[in-house]
Amino acid sequence: MNAIYYCKECCHAKETKKEYIGKRAKCPECSSNIKIYDTIEFIEQLAKKNIFQGRELSKIKQDFKDKEERELEELEEIAKEHEEELRKQEIEQSKIELDKREKLNIKIVNQAKTLTSNLKQIKSLKKEIEELKKNIQKLKQSPTSNKIKIVNKATNNINVNNTKEFTKQNKYIAIEKWFKQKSIKAEIDINNVDTTGFFDEIAEIIGNNYKVLKPLINQIQYIQNNDYSNLKFKLSDKGPNDIQVITSFCNQLYKYSFVSRYSYDKKLKIIWLHLQQAPKIKVFFNGIWMEWFIMIKIFKLFKDNNIDASLMRSVKITKLNKQTNELDIFILTKDNIPIYIECKTGEFREDINKYLKLQKVLDIPKENFIICILDLDNNYLDGLTSMYDLKFINENNIIKYLEKILI
Predict the structure, then answer these.
(1) Is residue 95 part of a domain?
(2) Strand ranges inside 251-302, DSSP E
């Protein structure tokens, strides 16, 4: 037997007599029409095919290996460039720190020179204070209208971006009483309305320039949420005005220590930032910045219009059933009218039902239960307001809306 038949359909193979070479027959397994081959010739063709496939496989493996090596070399080159850039930044930072120390020494010397003259001024100020105390005593006996004018004048002198005025007990005790009357425990952290730090300054820059800064803010969020520190941001596709806004913003981030390092390559138009990992900084960029932004705008509304109202941010409340909520911004007017503002920088739809339940529990009218959503169209927000027992608005229109309620 020097012949073989092989079925390509079912892969059945069997030897047969050599006189059947070149003829065709039916496969005993699947009845397909098959050809009978010379055994030696069939094996040679099969061997050649295997050799060819083996060579092709080796070539594919080598091509893949070469590609991997090229990509590895490219990654190593990028890493070297990054390390070199960081080294340059560290050198530049060292120079900056040295320059700061020299300036600080000069400043200390100048302050020492002026200390003596300041002591003399203190003595004269003490005399003025005594006079003011006498005037205050007289004013306490004056009509109530005069007292109100004094309070308003004091409020007008406050710098809302740098004050502890709103942390005083008389500014939030009314809020605690309001919740207590509803059998709700309110946990108030006065640090949430302390503007002596720099959260409010950075929040205002973001809020007033959000369309330009949005890509950078999103990238900062991504880097921090993945526990990275170094950020590279390209400006090659930005116009001169946008570049000015972004680089100025990064300078402020460095000035107020939101980032530990900042450099800008003007030639390549690339920004390098080393982000702080402090939890408060992380949550700030993840959306808390909008609460600061809206709060400062409201404080300015209070100041400009002499509005007597209490405000607290991030109020944690616990109901009788032990269910808890955190209220972004809560306002209580002098007439005991509550206003709640929820600030959203991202997805909000899945929380609508939660807000509706909270609105019923707090018994706040629809027009005073405000969902402020970042960067959404007015017509779309009006549509949501007509659908739900909530007031939807964006950051651009909220102050005008509050003016109608408060003034």
Answers:
(1) no
(2) 259-265, 270-275
